[in-house]
Amino acid sequence: MATAHVLVIPFPAQGHVNPMMLLSRKLVKYGFKITFVNTEIIHERVEGALDSLVDSNINLVSIPDGLGPADDRNELGKLCEAMLHTMPEKLEELINNINASNGDDKISCIVADAGMGWAIEVGNKMGIKGAVFWFAAAASLALQVSIPSLIDDGIIDSDGIPTQKQVIQPLPGMPAMDTAYISWYRTGDSACQKIFFKYTQQYMQNLKFADWWLCNTVHELEPVTFSLAPKLLPIGPLMSSKHTEDSVGQFWQVDHSCLNWLDQQQPCSVVYVAFGSFTVFDPTQFKELALGLELTNRPFLWVVRPDIIDQSRNAYTKEFQGTRGKIVGWAPQTKVLNHPAIACFISHCGWNSLIEGASNGVPFLCWPYFADQFLDRIYICDVWKVGLGFELDENGIVLREEVKRKVDQLLGDESIRARSLELKKMLMNNIADNGQSSKNFNNFIQWLKA
Known about the structure:
Number of strands: 15
CATH class of the largest domain: Alpha Beta
Strand order of the largest sheet: 3-2-1-4-5-8-9
Helix content: 40-55%
Mean pLDDT: 91
Largest sheet: 7 strands, parallel
Shape: globular
Radius of gyration: 21 Å
Number of helices: 16
CATH topology of the largest domain: Rossmann fold
């Protein structure tokens, strides 16, 4: 019997490619062959950042996203419109070419990022079964499921824009949240927000074509949410093993020198600072953060992408390193968070970073920037109580003194550390041999093989 052949397609962003690559590697261990489909631009970046060979059972391929070489792919509205117009047809062509040339080794299933839900519809039309992978908190999906009722109740208008600033409880049992932090309302200017909201409504409709809804979380993290979205199946935390290279699926070359530097630091002493692949700072805020880290008088490891400062391509500079810091362009984050020297994680609260930090028992200082990260902060600070947030001054800036104050407060609170370790235990139990996430994943495997 031929090996089952699974096509995996993530949304073209670092925080989506990473977990779907981890999922692909897990599938390979069960004997599946993977065709991993990126957009052309992302494919080039992933291949350019590789410092190790990709598993021979994972074939990296690409299709165009519909934008030109000079277009800004951080403009989510423009990107989503172009993808929806171009990629379904290109994906169908790719599948037909693979199936025509591979004999018995045809695509048997599509696992699509929920943000690429149209791919499940393409598969449905071609008679290929499909599963979606939800890329964020289960609560974030529940919020999107509730879009029709939010419109009916007058909380948002038909473009997804809040009708007024207010605190709402989107669904019973979910924490209260400010309407200003609704995920699709935090994706750019008003034109971008409207387009992205329509795209969100579209992919939510496409989910009905999927047989399985998978997510990188565990039931106990968000128990109420799973009662609201019963089709959602937690298989997390998805983790790279200690023996797995971190470079596959990364957009920037990983700087491993920080691991040697961490080896020289005292246990539980280093402040790890990383804001993912999207966050951009204005120069004033960047400088305040740098001075705040120096003010803590603690060693810090800071991931500073070359494009992290607004209107600049050259943020990577030693002048911000101070006397106790280490700055890298991109870090092997799973290995960093697993290192005994790490004391806390100043994070943008992206879901992957949240899961990686929580799985290693690391407490958080929350600095959300974009989309669902504001909802994640509510869970970290108010529900699980494993972190603290920063207060802004009257100009919307986190001042250097606030950075020092919150680092000192977090690291001086043993109860936060204790809860973080309990959270780690709960997450790890789920991926033990008899854990619930492991059982869920094994059921998914049996369905794939059927």
